[in-house]
């Protein structure tokens, strides 16, 4: 029992904290945008299921916390359609009901009777809030802590590795990769991961000379630095890690905001690039993670952040800082995912609004319903696949096989 409680504290609690922060900000984006356009809102919920706490504010919005903290939602007044985009017949029925109950002037308070551009802004506000959250978190972290950078200087090259075949040498300082500046060894590791099996041109400073080398990173099972193993792209370069090799950079508030924007864009662009390679079959999809994988990483990140701290307060602070960094990355991912043109996601709503703007009428209810069923099936299928990957990473099947053999 004690072991279970320890596991829950280490893995489940950090996962819930990170997910709750990211999802709450996403839903607040929808909420604030709707409020700014005068949309009547019935409920704002953090989590699903029976409420463990609830209260109603002066504007009549019920705020509630559900017992299952794995998401959230904003319920607009009159929104009894799962699609939140009723067809023309549904709109007319809803219109008559509102007029009979509250009068003609009340229509302007309901989401479904707002101009298309306002509904589109409300739908897009959730993902945009996630991107803003990521910028704020990244900016806050670099302003408070600065950056501890390890320049991409080669200490040694593994024999027979892609780097050895390309001609890298000890002492080389890698300045560019695929036309992009390489400011740290982390940048180099990112390039190696994203461009697995793709030839990459590197610009290397070797003494007073600049040398161009072409290497192709390969997948290799390596420690992920968090107590587990993953397939990682590698070039076979060992970095110089003497104390004097590290550089600590501080930023003022304006520079920190710029770094926050830069990091957010970098996470977004690399996510899009990697998913594009995954969809086209250039890389395996076995690195996709679901809730179990995120929970595992959350717990391990929290533990890593607390390592080496001299007291409990410092451990909590270190874990919190590490989890804020993870929340920023996860926020970018959730913002991007919700913009995909898949029914049931915000991007699906935007797709329907685009049709409505062109056709001057909502998409037929039957088409919408079919689209939402397909979208839900796709999301569930993706979730099951990601969970399968998580179970493989956690070696659950190997453990079960050992117990049964």
What does this entry look like structurally?
This protein has helices at residues 2-36, 88-102, 116-145, 162-166, 185-194, 253-279, 291-306, 312-338, 346-359, 365-393, 396-404, and strands spanning 41-56, 62-76, 147-149, 154-157, 173-177, 180-181, 200-206, 209-215, 218-223, 229-234, 237-239, 247-249. It is of the alpha+beta class. It has a 4-stranded antiparallel beta sheet with strand order 6-5-7-8. Strands 1-2 form a two-stranded antiparallel sheet. Strand 7 and strand 8 (209-215) form a beta hairpin. Helix 1 crosses helix 8 and helix 6 (253-279) crosses helix 8 (312-338).
What's the number of extended β-strand segments? Answer: 12
Spatial shape? elongated
Question: How much beta, percentage-wise?
Answer: 15-25%
Helix percent reads: 40-55%
Average pLDDT level: 80
State the end-to-end CA separation: 26 Å
The main sheet comes to:
4 strands, antiparallel
Q: Using only CA atoms, what is the Rg?
A: 25 Å
Discrete helix count: 11
- Summing up helix and strand content along with how strands pair, one would put the structural category as alpha+beta
Oligomer: single chain
Largest sheet: spatial strand order: 6-5-7-8
In terms of per-residue confidence, which ranges show pLDDT below 50 for 5 or more consecutive residues? 396-405
Write the H/E string, N to C.
Answer: HEEHHEEHEEHEEEEEEHHHHHH
